[in-house]
Automatic annotation (TrEMBL):
It comes from Candidatus Zymogenus saltonus. Keywords: Lipid metabolism. One of its GO terms (biological process) is lipid metabolic process. Pfam families: Patatin (PF01734). This is Patatin-like phospholipase family protein. Residues 404-425 are annotated as: Disordered.
Length: 472
């Protein structure tokens, strides 16, 4: 009997390995290089105030959190003329699940300003509902009974199918590619979007955007500023090589204008080993004529906040001698988890294999955030950036506020008078990063967004007006 079971398993594994080859033609899997392009998209005018939003990754958790926060900003944070502060946003830099929510907002938001309440109420009803969709289930629903082999698709093929799911939702208003999106941007109908991916081949960021390389400042040091004793390391460490710091579609001869936004979202939202990466064929300046494949994966690998990209854009803008900014505001919409030591100190058996992997990713994300925030503190010591404010919007803020007020003890027991908050935080920590979310978790994120934006409303408005606002 054991032998029969063993042979059955072996045959099943053989069958899976045999049929798991790609069943989707390369024309869909690979974004091939049609012809050399040199597109010159002009950046929209951002006026005298730099206003950007960075949106973190995190699957449907990030998508729902982003849509809920944007809805509260639309509803609660109003300018003196009755418009929402969202009407003034110049740029959105986004990652992974946050890219899905950001692309939806830019592609489908009404073309009028937010004083047209009826249109925006309908839009946000659809927006928040669509971000709650079970995208993983929709992948399965595409399969027909006679296509049973697709159950064993490769991760890259599954990525193509997920892109199709995204595409059907994103293109409902007619906007399909980055050229369409650029027309909306120039008409000030939506912010300029920057979708962040990670090039697995060389470790660089891949920026899907109509902005150009010259719009960003990637190297902030010149060789003459480097101490002599470290000059030998200069060529290897300090100056990020052009193609390793960030890559753009134009760097490999691709047309960003012709690229579907859904493909960029899929690249940014790829989950290693599950969905993606997307594959783009092109040629670099160093190797003209030689076709190379670039594998674009989860943008969160390089920067799960999309904040580094915002800072590099801001550095370029503020160094422009022809521009003079009165200040800037960056809203950081972060759906990432925080690290609570109590998660492990209550039991010696707390860290299972799965939790070790999850904990490792959380620590990696946390350390990267720490480095970015440390750089922000250093940046604000420079007089040129003293009027730039960063406002952090995380679902954990209400729980951190209670702890700062002394409503938390360093032990493993719950307090009777704080059970609701404690249970809410526990439920928040359980929300994963897959592309599906249950109604209870979505409702929790909705409620937290209302509380967080309500608490930060005054700070956002004061900072936007260029006044001295209290730091929170």
């Amino acid at each position: 009997m054991k032998r029969i079971v063993f042979m059955t398993i072996i045959l099943l594994l053989f069958a899976v390995s045999f049929i798991s080859c790609s069943v989707i033609p390369d024309i869909f899997t690979i974004n091939k290089l049609p012809e050399k392009v040199d597109e010159k998209f002009s950046a929209a005018d951002d006026g005298d105030f730099f206003f950007a939003i960075s949106v973190s990754g995190g699957g449907s958790r990030a998508a729902v959190w982003t849509s809920s926060v944007l809805y509260e900003l639309y509803k609660e944070v109003k300018l003196p003329d009755g418009r929402s502060v969202l009407d003034e946003v110049d740029y959105i830099s986004c990652v992974s699940g946050g890219s899905l929510a950001s692309a939806y907002y830019c592609m489908r938001k009404p073309v009028v300003d937010t004083r047209e309440k009826k249109e925006y109420d309908i839009f946000f009803d659809n927006y928040t509902e669509d971000m709650r969709r079970n995208f993983e289930k929709e992948i399965v629903s595409i399969y027909k009974p006679w296509q049973w082999k697709r159950v064993f698709l490769k991760a890259t093929d599954k990525g193509v199918i997920l892109q199709r799911v995204f595409d059907r939702m994103l293109t409902e208003r007619g906007t399909k590619n980055f050229r369409d999106l650029h027309e909306r941007q120039l008409k000030v109908q939506c912010p300029t979007i920057i979708i962040n991916g990670t090039v697995m081949d060389n470790g660089s960021k891949f920026l899907f955007t109509t902005l150009r390389r010259s719009d960003f400042l990637f190297n902030t040091f010149s060789k003459t500023e480097v101490p002599e004793e470290t000059a030998a390391a200069w060529e290897y460490i300090l100056p990020v090589k052009e193609e390793e710091g960030a890559m753009f579609a134009g760097d490999i001869g691709q047309s960003i204008g012709n690229m579907r936004v859904s493909r960029a979202v899929m690249g940014s939202a790829s989950i290693p080993l599950l969905f993606g990466p997307i594959i783009i064929e092109g040629e670099t300046k160093k190797m003209p004529g030689k076709m190379t494949y670039f594998h674009i994966n989860d943008g969160g690998i390089a920067d799960n906040l999309g904040l580094e990209t915002v800072i590099q854009l801001m550095l370029n803008r503020f160094s422009d001698p022809n521009k003079r900014y009165r200040g800037g505001l960056v809203l950081i919409i972060d759906a990432g988890h925080l690290i609570d030591p109590k998660d492990s100190t209550c039991s010696i058996e707390e860290f299972t294999t799965g939790k070790i992997l999850g904990r490792s990713l959380d620590i990696f994300d946390y350390r990267h955030k720490y480095f970015i925030y440390y750089n922000i503190l250093l940046l604000q010591q420079n007089p040129a950036f003293r009027n730039v404010r960063f406002v952090y919007l995380s679902p954990y803020l209400p729980y951190l506020k209670d702890k700062d007020n002394g409503n938390d003890e360093d032990n493993c027991s719950d307090k009777d008078n704080d059970k609701d908050k404690d249970n809410g935080e526990k439920e928040l920590k359980k929300i994963g990063t897959r592309f599906k979310i249950d109604p209870k978790s979505a409702k929790l994120l909705d409620d937290l967004a209302k509380e967080v934006v309500g608490d930060m409303k005054e700070t956002i408005l004061l900072n936007f007006e260029g006044k001295d606002a209290p730091r929170k």
